[in-house]
Design a protein that fits this description.
This is FecR protein domain-containing protein. With 508 residues, the chain is mostly beta strands. It has 5 helices and 31 strands. The protein is globular.
């Protein structure tokens, strides 16, 4: 199927959770068509697999294959919301989706324990900067009798079969014990419990929390110290071991549990800032101050929730809009105001420039990493407009995107890029297909376009360079992978592209 431009745009908005009510209604109408529904399911399946590359199942055990996590990549996965739209509209009511999948039966009565089974109970849907404490999980899909997950640092999104979305911050030790429950032995947890999943339960040493439809947070120190429970919105019940009557917490209420045996609960201020409620974005917007000044502009970006460990990081600075190019003088990575890493090379990015040096690299030594306020500082200014329009004689007009990435640890080869990549720009849908003969096929809104005919590409040090030769000039575009399914245009103002097809496998 060649999906219509309208369908592509609506599915993209659905995945990004940016749909209006009218757009959602229109998508529901389009998905009544079998081909459109197939495209929707294909694209949402791609989103599910964005954070990981999975090794193929063992041929010797096809019926009980175990997948190994090879790459740990991050991508917010709004799949619950996207699929919920479809189910809410009833479009799957007469469609065969998965006849072997049983509908989870949730405990509707608070405190009612769920039987331990081997059913698929939860899925790891995103990871940021995770270091495992021991072996990594064997699979993205977790069963209710799988061993506990232990992480020494980082952020993990765990989505339960009931629809509950949790964010767990390391160091942490958590075990999924059912489709709507878990055991937290250590770590910080934030849970967003949708309607229909009431009764979500988190057990811990000395007690448990039962949600009544809310967003709540908890911190288990893991050393038998008091456990903190707080409510962002809604209502939860906190039980002390051996007690049948819970303490009820509502909006902005927090308690410490386990202070003294005679008075186990103590009210405390709810420290909201101590918890990560949303998966952080790797994209930031920048804009030069609209002033006529010769002084360089200093732009700072809070990247604290993207820096979870020592290692290598990159900042890609892209111009998107405005009359002026940006001259970048230096980039610095700071922790609590102290400069930890600096890249002082000069670069330029703007409409009439195709820079190959607008990427800044940082290395955080192991002895320099610790949690804190991490900021990325960019120093730059507008370019002179002409010989008689020097900096300071005009009001700067320049804005764009900054992408902050940890270094992709995959084994990047030519094969990593081969396939079709789709992206949107100025309201149009673009597709580039990198072929095995190092050529490129290009289309706009489904129609072939000859502007990249004759272009060639090569991969060196994990970077794909596309060389476009036309009469009068040669253009080089640089691309890198955020993960196996997302392509970054390093020196072009396009948004990231998603991989929508793999190269065809030749017959044996």
């Amino acid at each position: 199927m060649n999906p219509s431009t309208e369908l592509i745009k609506l599915v993209d908005k659905c995945i990004e959770q940016s749909m209006t009510r009218m757009e959602r209604s229109r998508l529901e109408d389009l998905l009544k068509d079998d081909d459109a529904l197939h495209y929707y399911l294909e694209m949402t399946a791609i989103e599910v697999n964005l954070p990981f590359e999975l090794a193929p199942p063992s041929e010797s055990t096809p019926s009980s294959a175990t997948y190994n996590i090879k790459q740990l990549w991050t991508r917010p996965l709004p799949m619950v919301a996207a699929i919920a739209i479809s189910f809410a509209a009833g479009i799957f009511s007469n469609q065969w989706v998965n006849p072997s999948a049983s509908t989870p039966q949730l405990a509707q009565t608070p405190g009612h324990s769920q039987p331990a089974t081997t059913q698929n109970a939860a899925t790891i849907t995103s990871l940021i900067g995770v270091n495992w404490d021991g072996p990594a999980p064997d699979s993205l899909v977790l069963k209710s009798k799988d061993r506990a997950i232990r992480m020494s640092s980082g952020l993990m999104e765990l989505t339960f079969a009931s629809g509950v979305r949790t964010l767990i911050e390391g160091p942490a030790d958590i075990q999924v014990t059912g489709i709507n429950q878990a055991q937290l032995s250590m770590g910080r947890l934030v849970a967003d419990v949708p309607k229909g999943a009431e009764g979500f339960t988190v057990n811990y040493a000395g007690g448990k929390v039962i949600d009544l439809g809310t967003e709540f947070a908890m911190f288990v120190p893991g050393n038998r110290e008091a456990v903190e429970v707080g409510v962002f919105r809604g209502e939860v019940e906190v039980y002390d071991d051996g007690e049948s009557t819970p303490k009820t917490l509502t909006d902005d209420h927090a308690v410490l549990h386990g202070i003294h045996s005679d008075t186990p609960f103590q009210s405390i201020p709810f420290q909201r800032k101590n918890y990560v409620r949303f998966l952080p974005s790797r994209e930031f917007t920048w804009e030069l101050p609209a002033t006529a000044s010769t002084a360089p502009a200093v732009m700072e970006f809070d990247v604290s929730h993207l820096v979870w460990k020592s290692g290598d990081y990159r900042a890609i600075i892209k111009w998107m809009k405005g009359h002026d190019a940006l001259i970048i003088r230096r980039a610095e990575l700071l922790r609590d105001g102290q400069v930890i890493a600096t890249d002082a090379h000069q670069a330029k990015t703007g409409m009439y420039y195709s820079p190959d040096d607008n990427t800044y690299s940082f290395s955080i030594p192991e002895d320099a990493y610790r949690k804190g306020l991490w900021k990325l500082r960019i120093t730059g200014h507008a370019n002179d407009r002409a010989k008689n329009r020097k900096l300071g004689s005009f009001t700067a007009d320049s804005s764009g995107l900054l992408l902050f990435e940890d270094q992709y640890a995959g084994n990047i080869t030519d094969k990593s890029f081969i396939g079709t990549w789709r992206y949107s720009h100025d309201g149009d849908i673009y597709e580039r297909t990198f072929t095995a003969d190092h050529r490129v096929q290009f289309s706009i809104n489904g129609k072939p376009n000859a502007s990249l005919d004759g272009a060639t590409w090569e991969v060196k040090h994990g970077i794909l360079t596309l060389t476009v030769r036309t009469s009068g000039y040669t253009l080089k575009e640089l691309h890198m992978l955020r993960n196996d399914h997302e392509l970054i245009f390093m020196n072009q103002r396009y948004r990231n592209a998603k991989k929508v097809s793999m190269p065809a496998t030749p017959p044996p």
